[in-house]
Specification:
single chain; 13 helices
Length: 502
């Protein structure tokens, strides 16, 4: 089926093979499963060279063998986005497409089609067209045209390249870095002779469904809408003597940041086990940060004011447990049962009035803590992902670390970390208060996380998060055992039994 009304998003002459590789990396950064790129050009134009560069970028392996599928017709690759690379030059009749698996699961993979003219009118209507024409020497004239629904993401990836060029990284290699569950994405940027950097691509937060008072979930829980909060918090943490990424270049209007690269070494080992000394180093960072709490200001970086972890945010987050996790466990709650759940948690919010306040970085756990061995103590932990920072009970971050959602922390090691925290604090406090506030904040956070994981699994089909549920369910039962959690524990036992999913 021939498509109409394509929009040209790229039309330039690429001077050499290196430029073509960079173009392929830009395209790779925008690719989604289900995309189909039809490549047009004469023999020797560079269609296979483009495909090879794109596939190697998706694989994260510049040495990956990527043969031409001229004789096999199809070469598949199981990558972070699966790829099906077709060359239809030897196809005798479009009817043969069925035989070679052309129509098998196209929505879950990227499909690259060389010599698409041999497919007749069998290509899907919504596909991309890449035309490559030979010019003098190694130069190639390249045009990429896409359907309207694809326009924004491809324009954004080429805008990202211009941003990198303005920062002095126009010739850099872009490589995907594992992202998070948000709409942000990250790439490692490398140029020969220069240190690697991290590119944060944070487009404006998509508007969410209205939940309450004309506000979305992101509004109610104070999620960052752009890159300015990250910049403000990074600056504040650096001034306090901690390791946050230096910002090398920024475009807050577009949502682009170029950051210092903290490398790949985290605080867990190759078997996803906690490295004890590094977790304790993170505890030391939190103890030092929390000692500064009374001297900190909620207003930083001039006019930026850190949002408050207010009752609305607290209750909106924990409500995810009743809204998503309970149904995921085949427990259908009535309105009255949900209301009683929220009422119990509202009472627990009041129990936090005497808790120490300061910065809440919000996600102080293993994915966001890097190990910088060459630095001085308190700077050996690199802090990431703090754009959603709040102002409130600072023990929230301690709870997120000792009840790490993605790494199992044993009860014994958790107690060791808490003992270390208390010994490192310069401000004295009652251990009973710490345990009480930690149980409240930890249970609130863990219920929120279970709700998010259930939503990602049931609504977005992201089943990888299910593997983390048993760990967090066990954490929750531990925290609910605290005497302060009696009302919520009672509700939990009535409505979710022993907390086991069917």
């Amino acid at each position: 089926m021939l498509q109409q009304n394509l929009i040209k998003v790229f039309d330039e002459t690429l001077s050499n093979e290196a430029a073509t590789r960079r173009f392929a990396q830009d395209v790779a950064a925008a690719i989604l499963p289900g995309d189909l790129i039809a490549l047009y050009g004469d023999l020797g134009a560079g269609k296979t060279a483009f495909c090879r560069a794109l596939i190697r970028n998706l694989a994260g392996d510049e040495q990956l063998e990527v043969p031409s599928p001229t004789f096999s017709l199809l070469q598949p690759y199981e990558l972070r986005i699966p790829v099906r690379h077709f060359d239809l030059y030897r196809l005798a009749d479009p009817e043969e497409l069925e035989e070679i698996g052309f129509f098998d699961e196209p929505d879950t993979a990227l499909t690259l089609v060389e010599w698409p003219i041999r497919a007749g009118d069998m290509l899907p209507e919504q596909h991309l067209i890449l035309s490559i024409d030979i010019e003098a020497g190694d130069a190639r004239s390249v045009q990429l045209s896409v359907p309207e629904p694809h326009k924004a993401r491809f324009e954004r990836t080429f805008a990202a390249r211009k941003f990198l060029a303005s920062a002095g990284y126009g010739a850099a290699m872009r490589r995907h870095v594992q992202g998070d569950a948000s709409h942000r994405s990250y790439e490692r940027i490398s140029t020969p002779g220069q240190p690697t950097t991290i590119f944060m691509n944070a487009p404006e937060t998509p508007p969410g469904d209205i939940i309450e008072d004309g506000k979305s979930y992101a509004d109610l829980v104070h999620r960052a809408a752009d890159t300015r909060p990250f910049s403000a918090m990074a600056d504040a943490l650096l001034k306090l003597g901690f390791s946050a990424p230096s910002i090398l270049s920024s475009d807050h209007v577009s949502g682009f940041l170029l950051l210092e690269d903290f490398g790949k070494e985290g605080i867990v080992d190759a078997h996803a086990q906690p490295i004890g000394a590094r977790y304790l180093a993170a505890i030391d960072v939190l103890a030092a940060l929390h000692d500064k709490g009374p001297a900190l200001s909620q207003t930083i970086d001039g006019p930026y004011e850190i949002p408050t972890f207010d009752r609305t945010a607290f209750l909106t987050e924990v409500a995810l447990f009743a809204d998503w996790y309970a149904p995921y466990c085949d427990k259908q709650l009535q309105a009255q049962e949900q209301q009683s759940f929220v009422a119990h948690w509202s009472g627990l919010f009041d129990e936090l009035k005497m808790a120490e306040t300061g910065f809440i970085l919000r996600d102080v756990h293993s994915p966001n803590l890097m190990w910088l061995a060459e630095r001085e103590p308190l700077q050996q932990i690199g802090l990431l992902d703090f754009q959603d920072a709040l102002w409130g009970p600072q023990l929230y971050d301690l709870a997120s670390l000792v009840y790490d959602a993605r790494i199992t922390i044993s009860v014994n090691f958790r107690q060791q970390m808490l003992d270390r925290y208390q010994s490192m604090r310069k401000t004295s406090f009652e251990r009973a208060d710490l345990d009480k506030h930690l149980a409240i904040l930890g249970a609130q956070r863990t219920m929120k996380i279970l709700g998010i994981f259930a939503r990602l699994a049931s609504h977005d089909a992201k089943m990888s998060y299910v593997a983390h549920m048993p760990r967090n369910e066990e954490y929750l039962r531990e925290m609910l055992a605290h005497e302060a959690m009696g009302a919520v524990r009672h509700w939990y036992e009535i409505h979710l039994g022993n907390g086991q999913r069917n």
